[in-house]
Amino acid sequence: MTVLWTSADAVAATGGTTTADWQAQGVSIDTRTIQPGDLFVALTAARDGHDFVAQALEKGAAAALVTHRPAGVGDDAPLLIVGDVLGGLADLARFARARTAARIVAVTGSVGKTSTKEMLRAALAPQGATHAAEASYNNHWGVPLTLARMPADCTYAVIEIGMSNPGEIAPLSQLTRPHVALVTTVAAAHLEAFENLAGIAHEKASIVAGLTAGGTAILNADLDTSDILRDVAAQYGAKIVTFGTSGDWRVGDVRITDAATIIEARHAETAYLCKLSVPGRHFAMNAVAVLAVSDALGADPAQSAMNLGQWLPPQGRGTREQVIVDQGQDGGTIDLIDDAFNANPTSMTAALEVLAASTPRDGVGLIQTGRRIAILGDMLELGPDEIQMHADLADCPHLAALTTVHCAGPRMRALFDALPADLRGQWTPQADDMADAVMGLIDAGDVVLVKGSKGSQVSRVVDAIRKLGHR
């Protein structure tokens, strides 16, 4: 396997002390997923990572990044000793960034960061070795971990950067030093930590703070806060490229079917056609942003447009699957749309549009009439107006195409009470209660959307639906 870190390079990066010579093929922070040959980083979170060093070494870790020799670890154990483990991880990230010639894009936005990161991976990988995190590693440890795992010889790297409080994005961008910075959108997410959307826009725009000289900022042109994004990018001297229904990269006709999204896009005099294998207008906007990024990185946007046909959203972010709910008949399935990882008013509206465009199947199941059913959990971190934001979802035009809306959680009670009587299904105080009741809420032929913030635990409803197929 390719050596990612030698003890000599790690010492040079961190200024630490090594107790042995070693070589690592990867970097891990979790003994549950660690692979033989990984460098184990003993971060402190809910538990002190030093408590797991012995276990990591038993599982074949090449060495451990620590501040001291933990209890139960032998004198001959391979350790990289530093003053601060998180700081040491950041040092590895800087060293890894400095030694690569890869073209790097940093991605942020209130909605669509992880999906867009995966779109970029799909678009770029056939054009050159592409590095991106396997999960949503976008915070103060996730970004340096992603960089520390970056092979020196990759062609492209995609780094996702998130935030929950002011002042978090700029330092991570400065660590990343991207050639291209993308802001997918600005919406009411994490609003409880900001006074208003303008504050969120300023924070998202700060992703340009780490751009390399001559770097490009790719910005959504369709937002009320687009001027803020442009102003901040201009202050940093970034080359500004816009995308949207207006802008340098324009979204044209978007056709949504049960199983696909067909997008016409245009840049200057060139037209592009993308076909995504999942439905969603919000995915269309992100796809056009990917074409803009590809062009700015020096990749071929036409090739990227073709490659996007291979992309699928990460689990819990709009994935679609069939689940058997009646094993006694042919076609005894439902179509499940699992969007239970994240939610705010913008992404909720987008998901409801996908459900509204879906086609249920008649002639199967007990009811014999296929339905469009939404099971919605609380949207979290929306600030003092969160109850009104939930109630306002009742005005979403896509609800008119739905049969029933079920709501779980105290905040979703506001939507439940605001719904027309003919749409109102069940309300439960917790997602677990909805999961217990789900067998009686759905039938073969239905299309079922499950959507909510991760903290609402509405994913338990998804799990309960999947288990119906194993009865």
UniProtKB/TrEMBL annotation:
<dbReference type="InterPro" id="IPR036565">
    <property type="entry name" value="Mur-like_cat_sf"/>
</dbReference>
<keyword id="KW-0436">Ligase</keyword>
<keyword id="KW-0067">ATP-binding</keyword>
<feature type="domain" description="Mur ligase C-terminal">
    <location>
        <begin position="332"/>
        <end position="453"/>
    </location>
</feature>
<keyword id="KW-0573">Peptidoglycan synthesis</keyword>
<keyword id="KW-0963">Cytoplasm</keyword>
<dbReference type="InterPro" id="IPR051046">
    <property type="entry name" value="MurCDEF_CellWall_CoF430Synth"/>
</dbReference>
<dbReference type="InterPro" id="IPR005863">
    <property type="entry name" value="UDP-N-AcMur_synth"/>
</dbReference>
<comment type="similarity">
    <text>Belongs to the MurCDEF family. MurF subfamily.</text>
</comment>
<feature type="domain" description="Mur ligase central">
    <location>
        <begin position="107"/>
        <end position="293"/>
    </location>
</feature>
<dbReference type="InterPro" id="IPR036615">
    <property type="entry name" value="Mur_ligase_C_dom_sf"/>
</dbReference>
<dbReference type="InterPro" id="IPR013221">
    <property type="entry name" value="Mur_ligase_cen"/>
</dbReference>
<dbReference type="Pfam" id="PF02875">
    <property type="entry name" value="Mur_ligase_C"/>
</dbReference>
<dbReference type="GO" id="GO:0016874">
    <property type="term" value="F:ligase activity"/>
</dbReference>
<comment type="function">
    <text>Involved in cell wall formation. Catalyzes the final step in the synthesis of UDP-N-acetylmuramoyl-pentapeptide, the precursor of murein.</text>
</comment>
<feature type="binding site">
    <location>
        <begin position="109"/>
        <end position="115"/>
    </location>
    <ligand>
        <name>ATP</name>
    </ligand>
</feature>
<keyword id="KW-0547">Nucleotide-binding</keyword>
<protein>
    <recommendedName>
        <fullName>UDP-N-acetylmuramoyl-tripeptide--D-alanyl-D-alanine ligase</fullName>
        <ecNumber>6.3.2.10</ecNumber>
    </recommendedName>
</protein>
<keyword id="KW-0133">Cell shape</keyword>
<feature type="domain" description="Mur ligase N-terminal catalytic">
    <location>
        <begin position="25"/>
        <end position="71"/>
    </location>
</feature>
<dbReference type="Pfam" id="PF01225">
    <property type="entry name" value="Mur_ligase"/>
</dbReference>
<keyword id="KW-0132">Cell division</keyword>
<dbReference type="InterPro" id="IPR004101">
    <property type="entry name" value="Mur_ligase_C"/>
</dbReference>
<dbReference type="InterPro" id="IPR000713">
    <property type="entry name" value="Mur_ligase_N"/>
</dbReference>
<dbReference type="InterPro" id="IPR035911">
    <property type="entry name" value="MurE/MurF_N"/>
</dbReference>
<comment type="pathway">
    <text>Cell wall biogenesis; peptidoglycan biosynthesis.</text>
</comment>
<keyword id="KW-0961">Cell wall biogenesis/degradation</keyword>
<dbReference type="Pfam" id="PF08245">
    <property type="entry name" value="Mur_ligase_M"/>
</dbReference>
<keyword id="KW-0131">Cell cycle</keyword>
